[in-house]
Amino acid sequence: MSRHTKNWIDSYIELQSNTEPAAIFDRWVAYSVVAAALRRKVHLQLGRLTYYPNLYIVLVAGPGVARKTQSIKYGTNFLDSIPEIRTCADSATKEAMTDDIEGSAMDTMLDNGENIRHSSLNIISKEFESFLGQKKENTRMLTALTDLFDCPSEWSSRTRHGTSNAIVGPWINLLAATTPDSLASSLPASAIGGGLTSRILFVWAEKKKKAIAIPEMTEKEKKLKKKLEDDLYQISSISGEYKMSPECKRNWVDWYTNYDEDESGERICEDKSFSGWYSRKPTYLMKLSMIRAAAASQSLIIQWHHVEEAIEAIQQVEFVMGNAFKAIGKSEITAEVDTVMQIIRTKRRVSEKELMSIIWRDIDSTKFENVIGTLMKTGKVVREYKGPDDERGIWYRWTGDLEKENK
């Protein structure tokens, strides 16, 4: 049976063109939905390495500005028509998640006649911090998600009923949303750069795509939605082993040989917190390449253009992902320092009186002295005792690299 669309991901992005969520959110929700349909029924074998098409995607933006929740809702609605796709509750404990993984187990007959048992579960969390829990209590959840990212053949964990069973073929696909401040409440500074965070694609957006007061679907869009539903069902039937075309394999060897994960000068994101992430970049590319191939056809062949499309998608994330951690740090005032810095940078010069009128609900006078002192020591903010037109009082002026900031 032939597909109705040329590429599921590209057509989904077209369908969402007249909605508010940020365009980069549309793209990555589409990747997650295709991954959810594939489950652990497909894999790519490169020598001793086995890749599965699961992703950990976290959409990050300020509260309400980029429509994170809407984006997830629009995409995951497509999964409702395929009963074999299992999802986990939005808020869960590690024990509840374990029960859900165990309950998702099913047998699948591959195209080659082989029967496999897998436990494929999609975690859909509109508030990632609710799913993870507070950072003082979520070590076990973080460890479990870290262990499950690579899809071990078996995974043992104690359930809420006190039993400890070996779960066969676990596969977790995560799609979540959060804000920088909420992320800070869930992830300790020690977790940044390694462990779970090095396995997550943090997708950042500054604002929504456009303003749509009444997002009604046109007849053309309704028809496209039906085509996407039918094509996703076809995608969900794909099973077996993906293989690279000869050209793709040659080009991949060249790319990988020249890829230097330790060379910071070649990194798009210079934030050192992502050193662990860059060591896993080739893994993300292989996962995305399978997803791109599945989005285009039923063929189990990965062409080089699928890898190129994956590289382009990853690069879009690299340009902005450093924003996800801006409220996370070892200091207890990291979030407050960032807030005050953004205000001063935006206003360029602001009186202490005006600044306090903006932040007084969150920062008292004692903490303010610590915050402003920290900022001044960075060299990006200076304190002055005379404002515009010789207006007396205490003023703060932004002295960061304005030319660089405006590029």
Provide structural commentary:
This protein is of the alpha/beta class and 407 residues long. Helices cover 42% and strands 19% of the residues. It has 2 domains: 8-323, Rossmann fold (3-Layer(aba) Sandwich), CATH 3.40.50.300; 334-405, Orthogonal Bundle (Arc Repressor Mutant, subunit A), CATH 1.10.10. Residues 403-407 have low confidence and may be disordered.
Low-confidence stretches: 403-407
Q: What fraction of the residues are assigned to beta strands by DSSP?
A: 15-25%
Q: How would a textbook summarize the main sheet?
A: 6 strands, mixed
What is the CATH topology descriptor of the largest domain? Answer: Rossmann fold
Task: Compute the CA-based radius of gyration.
Answer: 23 Å
| Tally of individual helices | 16
Helix content: 40-55%
> Can you tell me the number of structural domains?
2
CATH superfamily of the largest domain: P-loop containing nucleotide triphosphate hydrolases
What's the rounded overall pLDDT mean? 88
**E-strand count:** 15
Instruction: Note the gap between the termini.
Output: 49 Å
Shape, per Cα inertia axes: globular
